[in-house]
Design goal:
- By secondary structure, this protein is α+β, with helices and mostly antiparallel strands.
- Helix content is 59%, strand content 10%.
- The chain folds into two domains: 209 residues, Lysozyme; 154 residues, no CATH class.
- The protein is built from 18 helices and seven strands.
- The protein has a five-stranded antiparallel β-sheet, covered by helices on one side. It has a two-stranded antiparallel sheet with strand order 6-7.
- A hairpin with a 4-residue loop joins strand 2 and strand 3.
- Helix 11 crosses helix 13.
- The radius of gyration is 22 Å and the shape is globular.
Length: 376
């Protein structure tokens, strides 16, 4: 399915020659944006520290949501299929009521609900608007409902689900280091074993469309999404990278946006939390890696392995696994003398860091799984 697109590659190469000259102002704007984001993060952490000894925020594979009063918090661990809710309460009766409300929201909220109820994200979107960073409205994709319920839950089915799980035997209690008159009540709920696959189906239409448009395997996009975020729609890492395919705005985001829209713009977190935007951008970047940056690698399988590694660590670091510099053309000449299996082995042996090595193994394995599910 991965074919040569010489004309597009040449056009994109011409753009890259101008990028460093024309993007100084935009990158400076992004630096200011990041600084203001950091200040907002720090201020938010201080708010949370009034109630929690260890404030925890959303990460790549765990979505964390706080109530408006900050006294309840929900963790959806997409990697380990676990849901945990904690609340501060004066007694068990109050705790059970708060846990039931939080659980009902957790299993019925869509991405827009989570986003709009997140005070930190609402502060960050205001910063985006002030800096004229490209933003977007959040989509309304369900998060846990398709995982837990066979069809859209009714009030009755939701009530039964919540009542069954919020019971004294399921609730742990510990003292709060922040408030002597309150305790921390914790509810743990194990999500179904097939949560990841069910979550992937939510994005099938967008992935299928992007795969066709970018002429890349559908299984590759799914495997990247699984490895990057475990399908956490609000995934956020320290880089910073955002969303399902973990796009870094000031690197891959710049290239992908230009490739898609022929405009040199920086996108913000809200733009990348929108699933359709994120999948379009991530798929576009895979296209750029395969058809432009690594186009001199002749064997399609060898090029695919290098593309997967480059998505994680950059094309320059992939080149270093074969030659002593980041020169991709020289690396391609060396790669073209090797079989795909030899290229794979060389990447696992010579990539500079352990993370991209593990990443290549995971994505390759997961491509086989998603190929069987969606392409067989």
């Amino acid at each position: 399915m991965l074919l040569s697109c010489a004309a597009e590659a040449t056009s994109f190469d011409a753009y890259k020659q101008q990028t460093n000259k024309n993007f100084t102002q935009e990158k400076s704007k992004f630096s200011t944006y990041k600084a203001e984001q950091k200040e907002a993060f720090n201020n938010y952490i201080k708010e949370l520290e009034k109630y929690w000894k260890k404030p925890i925020l959303t990460s790549k594979k765990v979505l964390v949501s706080y109530s408006k009063d900050k006294k309840s918090r929900t963790f959806i661990d997409f990697e380990h299929n676990e849901l945990k809710i904690q609340t501060l309460a004066k007694n068990r009766r109050e705790a059970e009521a708060k846990l039931k409300l939080a659980l009902a929201k957790a299993v019925t909220f869509d991405t827009k609900d989570f986003y709009n109820n997140d005070d930190l994200e609402q502060k960050l979107i205001r910063i985006e608007h002030s800096k004229k960073i490209v933003s977007a409205t959040m989509d309304t994709a369900p998060v846990l409902a398709p995982v837990i319920f066979k069809k859209k839950p009714t009030q009755k089915s939701l009530y039964r689900y919540v009542q069954k799980r919020v019971q004294p035997k399921h609730i742990q209690v510990q003292n709060s280091p922040k408030a002597a008159h309150e305790k921390i009540y914790t509810l743990n709920v194990q999500l179904p074993d097939d949560t990841t696959i069910k979550r992937s189906r939510i994005y099938y239409s967008e992935v299928k469309q992007a795969a066709k448009k970018q002429n890349i395997p559908l299984s590759l996009i799914f495997a990247i999404m699984h490895s990057e975020s475990s399908f956490n729609p609000m995934a956020r890492s320290y880089v910073p990278a955002y969303g399902l395919m973990q796009i870094v705005p000031h690197t891959a985001g710049i290239d992908a946006y230009y490739y898609l829209y022929k405009r040199k713009r920086l996108v913000g977190s809200s733009y990348l939390y929108n699933a359709q935007n994120n999948i379009a951008m991530g798929s576009a970047y895979l296209h750029i890696l395969y058809y432009s940056y690594l186009k001199d690698i002749k064997n399609p399988t060898s090029r695919l392995y290098c593309t997967i590694a480059a998505y994680n660590t950059g094309a320059g670091n992939v080149a270093r696994a074969f030659v002593s510099t980041t020169n991709r053309h020289r690396a391609a000449q060396r790669i073209n003398l090797l079989t795909p299996d030899e290229v794979y082995a060389r990447l696992l042996q010579n990539l500079r860091y352990s993370e991209p090595k593990r990443y290549l193994i995971k994505v390759r394995k997961r491509m086989k799984i998603y190929k069987k599910i969606y392409e067989s």
